[in-house]
Amino acid sequence: MANLDDLQKLRDQALAQLAEVRDDALEAWRIAWLGAKGAVKAAMGKLKEIPPEHRSEYGKLANDLKQALSSAFEARKATVSTVKRGPVTDVTLPGEASRIGHQHLITQTVAELNEIFGRMGFSTAYGPEVEDERHNFNALNIPPSHPARDELDNFYISPSVMLRSQTSTVQIRVMESQSPPVRIIAPGRVYRPDTVDATHSFMFHQVEGLYVDEGVTMADLKTCLDQFCKAYFGPDITTRLRPSFFPFTEPSAELDVLFHFDDGRKAWVELGGCGMVDPNVLDDVGYDSEKYTGFAFGLGIERMVMRKYGIPDIRLLFENDVRFLQQF
Ligand code: FA5
Predict the structure, then answer these.
(1) Considering 61, 78, 95, which residue would you say is the last residue of a domain?
(2) Which residue puts its alpha carbon closest to atom 21 of ligand 1?
(3) Which end of the chain offers a freer environment for a tag, N or C, measured as fewer CB atoms within 10 Å?
(4) Domain-embedded: residue 98
């Protein structure tokens, strides 16, 4: 026959089980103990078996039992997740920002060159990096015996195919495909088996310029390059043209810029070659050299970048050390 001790045993048993219950077993515990067909309900149903003098005490204890188990259940539910556990993620912690890359300094500079020369009316042209000897040499008035063709100074793929050694190849490709007037720049990679040092690499970038029209003069070339240098380096830069020689320009010159170094020193630094397009080159592509004149230039992009940003060694630009690259 049911008695008051039974209620105490039920209570101990239920609370002991509840302490062990995890996650989705919690609801099963509630149904077993507090559900409509659960143990507490069954214990209450036994009230009529209790002798009349103990009934009110039994009823009170049974109610207390129900209350106690209900509160214990709610308390447990608050601490036990009913969601399946995976790796614990604390969503309140600050996130880990992923590193966002950006364009390489050379790529940024090419965009800047396109923009500066674009303002002067130049459009941008591109040519292949694998070239034939016609575009790298013949059409540029470089005869078969010229030392610039030496095997040791070029990356030949076959006797007549090579990695281009200068962007001047694009001058020829553009003039072959359109009639004058022409006003283009051609930025791109070039390859030479030069010994690598602080200012030389076997792969580097040049920007070629070509302007052919009626009445183009050396004064236009000088003005164009001076204006470009002022736009790129700043209005205080001083430039000069120094006589030189290239087979495809006559007269030819080197473009130098005067740099003021931090230690007070000043020095002329060569950026590239330039000159008036040789009439032989114009004739070879079918332009009337009696009617048209033109100027051309080819500047080393690494050289100008190194000067502008104070980069002491060209190799830094190609080693791809993120600590260096992220400064720009
Ligand atoms: C030329 O390549 C001519 N095609 C330039 C030219 C174009 C002249 C149009 C006239 C008319 P040069 O070999 O001097 O010229 O190279 C031009 C520039 O490229 C150099 O002044 C230098 O800034 C850069 N340069 C040359 N060799 C290297 C190298 N190994 N590494 C990095 N930059 C270089």
Answers:
(1) 78
(2) 272
(3) N
(4) no
Q: Two tokens at 126?
A: 């591109």
Strand partners, 124: 185
| 305 alpha carbon – ligand 1 mean position (Å) | 14
Per-residue pLDDT tens digits for 34-56: 999 999 999 888 888 888 888 89
- CATH number reported for the structural domain that contains residue 171 in this entry: 3.30.930.10
Is the CB of 192 within 6 Å of ligand 1? yes
The CA 302 to ligand 1 mean position distance, Å, reads 10
Same domain, 250 and 118: yes
Query: Do residue 290 and residue 203 come from a single domain?
Result: yes
- Domain-located, residue 216: yes
**pTM > 0.85: yes or no:** no
Instruction: Identify whether residues 71 and 192 lie together within a single domain.
Output: no
Distance 213 CA to ligand 1 centre (A): 24
The number of helix segments (H) and strand segments (E) in the chain equals: 11, 10
Reported as a single tens digit per residue, the pLDDT across 179-210 is: 999 999 999 999 999 999 999 999 999 999 99
Query: Token pair for residue 318?
Result: 């190609």
Strands 182-191 and 123-124: parallel
Cα of 176 from ligand 1 centre, angstroms: 23
Ligand 1 closest atom vs CA 299: 18
Q: Is 300 in the pocket of ligand 1 (CB under 6 A)?
A: yes
Report the number of distinct structural domains present in the chain: 2
Per-residue pLDDT tens digits for 226-275: 999 999 999 999 999 999 999 999 999 999 999 887 788 899 999 999 99
Q: Which atom of ligand 1 approaches the CA of 171 most closely? A: 9
Alpha carbon of 97 to ligand 1 centroid (Å): 42
- Domain ranges, residue 49: 4-78
Helices (H), 151-246: 168-177, 218-233
